[in-house]
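ARCHIVE CARD
CATEGORY: sequence design from structure
SOURCE FIELD: tokenized fold
FIELD CONTENT:
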């Protein structure tokens, strides 16, 4: 599949705005701005909507009728996939980790409203249940399309190569992009896009759940595959990927003081809502890096907000 044949549906509200953050900039001593991918529109937005524009186009080309994907109980990716499925007329099956919650809140509530069928993995490994669910859908003649975890395939990552082109057209000087990194697709796409569009700054992924060595390997591999898909000659090594893994805290989805303080500060100082799992951890990590001098004073930093706001409502006790 080459660049000319990479089709795309228009699902997102683009370009997403870039806003200066003057109060936080004054507090932190850097020139901080934010790219609002929490405002991509579909089903309350988020970064996965960009990826789904490419993934659903491929699903349509293949004649699929059902989208199947997987994630944690409060998965933003799953919620956005359910929204995209509803908008484009696909059936949708979400394989979520664990057991149904005692209260239906946050993204689980939205998954239900969007008409998704939810399969809970219970005590079993969610990836195995995901594969079994896909095979069962095939046997039932539902013509399923497997949307990868986090949308992180070369097709999905291509969306963030395009997003860097969008950023360059907005002509906002940036020395560094910082953001939450997990399944690797967003960062891989950005790295490819930086090469394609001659972005001069650094791309710093702040891991929310994986050690740096593992995530760098994932991102480098996916970036090379994405570049090949787009007809670009790129041979990145893991050592060329920048990931900070000092902020993993108690683990994925576990809210600590880092996330709690960042969420409260960004809301009270700039009216911005971060989520407990991804952007809250990334923003807390970013502030710590600035305070430790790992980011130079006066550096122009763009925080890329990847969305996730609905999950705030599933963490009320931890955020009080």
């Amino acid at each position: 599949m080459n660049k000319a044949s990479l089709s795309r549906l228009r699902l997102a509200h683009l370009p997403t705005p870039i806003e200066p953050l003057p109060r936080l900039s004054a507090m932190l001593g850097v020139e901080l701005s934010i790219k609002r991918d929490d405002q991509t529109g579909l089903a309350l937005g988020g970064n996965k909507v960009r990826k789904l524009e490419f993934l659903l186009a491929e699903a349509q080309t293949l004649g699929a009728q059902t989208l199947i994907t997987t994630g944690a109980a409060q998965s933003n990716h799953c919620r956005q996939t359910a929204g995209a499925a509803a908008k484009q007329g696909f059936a949708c099956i979400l394989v979520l980790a664990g057991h149904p919650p005692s209260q239906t809140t946050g993204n689980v509530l939205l998954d239900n409203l969007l008409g998704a069928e939810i399969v809970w993995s219970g005590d079993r490994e969610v990836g195995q249940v995901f594969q079994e669910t896909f095979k069962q859908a095939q046997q039932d003649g539902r013509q399923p399309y497997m949307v990868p975890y986090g949308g992180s395939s070369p097709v999905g990552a291509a969306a963030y190569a395009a997003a860097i082109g969008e950023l360059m057209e907005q002509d906002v000087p940036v020395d560094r992009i910082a953001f939450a990194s997990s399944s690797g697709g967003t960062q891989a796409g950005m790295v490819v896009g930086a090469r394609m569009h001659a972005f001069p700054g650094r791309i710093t992924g702040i891991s929310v759940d994986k050690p740096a060595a593992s995530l760098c390997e994932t991102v480098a591999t996916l970036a090379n595959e994405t570049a090949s898909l787009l007809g670009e000659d790129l041979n990145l090594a893991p050592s060329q990927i920048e990931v900070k893994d000092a902020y993993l805290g108690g683990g994925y989805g576990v809210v600590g003081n880092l996330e709690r303080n960042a969420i409260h500060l960004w809301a009270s100082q700039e009216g911005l809502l971060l989520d407990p799992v991804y952007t809250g951890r990334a923003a807390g990590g970013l502030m710590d890096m600035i305070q430790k001098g790992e980011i130079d004073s006066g550096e122009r930093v763009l925080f890329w907000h990847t969305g996730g706001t609905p999950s705030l409502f599933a963490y009320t006790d931890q955020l009080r």
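CARD ANNOTATION: Residues 264 and 319 are 8 Å apart (CA to CA). The mean pLDDT is 96.
SHELF: design records, drawer C
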